[in-house]
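Its record is set out here:
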Amino acid sequence: MRIFPIPQSARFFKTYNSQIQADVSFNMRSFANFQNLRNSEHAQLEIRELAQEMLELVKNIEGSPFKHTLEAWGETQVEKINIVEY
């Protein structure tokens, strides 16, 4: 008999004062894959919000070092990502 019907249940028992912080790094291909998976209507809401915030941070880096990459990636990925609704 399973006490918790879904694996995500454990996160509700973790208090805010015990949350962790993590630094992550991506290459652009991995970032695109992360966005495709986690910034979709099928992703968990909290993860989707995180993915959207990450995309905005990348778009707004001073000097726009990823401007051309995001434009090339644009119509197929970024535009699709920005359309995601809750």
Notes: The first helix runs from residue 28 to 38. Residues 27-83 form one domain. Helices lie at 28-38, 45-59, 67-83. Residues 42 and 48 are 9 Å apart (CA to CA).
